[in-house]
Amino acid sequence: MAQTTPNHTQTVSGWAAHDASGEITPYVFKRRENGINDVTIEILYCGMCHTDIHHVKNDWGITMYPVVPGHEITGIITKVGSNVRKFKIGDKVGVGCLAATCLECEFCKDSQENYCDQVQLTYNGIFWDGSITYGGYSKMLVADHRYVVHVPDSLPMDAAAPLLCAGITVYAPMKDQNLLEAGAAAKYIGVVGLGGLGHVAVKFAKAFGHHVTVISTSPSKEKEARERLGADDFLISTDIEQMKAKKRTLDFIVNTVSAKHSLGPLLELLKVNGTLVIVGAPDKPLDLPSFPIIFGKRVVKGSMTGSIKETQEMMDLCGQRNITCDIEVVQTDQINEALDRLAKNDVKYRFVIDIAGKSSS
Ligand SMILES: [Zn+2]
Ligand SMILES: [Zn+2]
């Protein structure tokens, strides 16, 4: 697990946490030279994901400090390796959660490399050369071109950034469930939690023509969910009567909540044979009662981000339909404050760091 490899000669300014306090401070480090399969990206924006908090605070016990978080990266290509055909200097691109995979297993060969057993993530991973990966809270990134996507010209680079994790995380399970085009077969979709992931899930589900119910613990979110995001229905998950009244009404639920909760009341909302997909990652096990699964023949499954092919599809679709994330842009000296607010879900709906200092807000 060598951290210094001979070709890591490019000096980069970034922001890192150095211990479990999670405090982020400026950090200068090295990245590899641009290899034959690499592109170098001048980072413009980086979204702030809940996963970043878990990593900077070592909640999962896997953090390799110093950690430079960030896996919702948009920027401009400044160098391309000799093997790279898909990108050229000046292209607008994005990088999400994936930095490397084995390229040889059944999943890698079938454009499902996000399920590769050897997957290495954009930060706190180990790249092929043995170096620790550093993420997008930094001015520049060297990425293998196979894990980079184009950002359509019609999308703003700041509001597109969270699509690279929050967006694809909810898009992929909807695609997996054949929900991309409702047509005559509009479904009843539940979105649990109206945060970074949830708000994009509502936008996608509405764009695809489905009936959308937002399920939240916060009554204060109802007005906005209905009026601005276009949700058709709103349920307070702690209101037992309200939840009971909607038993067996939903075809599919995407659960974005990352705090501990019981799946039982949510499962009861599903029709027979309905599916609940977990994309939020609580650090404690969830309560999963057997009765609602058995009596409703229901399915509980997970979904881990998306493949690069799916991510490109999603970006193109967002470009065509003008789907972006609702963001609050912060400057690099506001990262700690933003992380604190994110931990309290005090953001509508995603913080994006203005890495290059190009926004005036
Ligand atoms: Zn993320
Ligand atoms: Zn693989």
Describe the structure.
With 361 residues, the protein is of the alpha/beta class. The chain has 2 domains: 205 residues, Medium-chain alcohol dehydrogenases, catalytic domain (Quinone Oxidoreductase, Chain A, domain 1), CATH 3.90.180.10; 136 residues, NAD(P)-binding Rossmann-like Domain (Rossmann fold, 3-Layer(aba) Sandwich), CATH 3.40.50.720. Helices cover 24% and strands 26% of the residues. The chain has 11 helices and 17 strands. The strands form 4 sheets. Strands 3, 4, 5, 8, 9, 16 and 17 form a 7-stranded mixed β-sheet that branches. Helix 4 crosses helix 5. The two termini are 40 Å apart. One zinc ion binds next to helix 2.
Please write the CATH class name of the largest domain.
Answer: Alpha Beta
User: Average pLDDT value?
Assistant: 95
Q: How much of the polypeptide forms β-strand, as a percent range?
A: 25-35%
Query: What class would the helix/strand composition place it in?
Result: alpha/beta
Secondary structure tally: strands: 17
Q: Approximately how much helix is present in the residues?
A: 10-25%
* Low-pLDDT residue spans: none
Query: What is the first-to-last residue Cα distance?
Result: 40 Å
Small ligands present: zinc ion
Order of helices and strands: EEEHEEEHEEEHHEHEHEHEHEHEHEHE
Radius of gyration: 20 Å
| CATH 2nd-level architecture of the largest domain | Alpha-Beta Complex
Number of helices: 11
What is the number of independent domains?
A: 2
Shape from CA axes?
A: globular
Biggest sheet features = 7 strands, mixed
Per the CATH scheme, the topology name of the largest domain is Quinone Oxidoreductase, Chain A, domain 1
Specify the CATH homologous superfamily of the largest domain. Answer: Medium-chain alcohol dehydrogenases, catalytic domain
Family: Belongs to the zinc-containing alcohol dehydrogenase family.
Keywords: Metal-binding, Oxidoreductase, Zinc
GO molecular function: metal ion binding; oxidoreductase activity
Domain Enoyl reductase (ER): 22-353
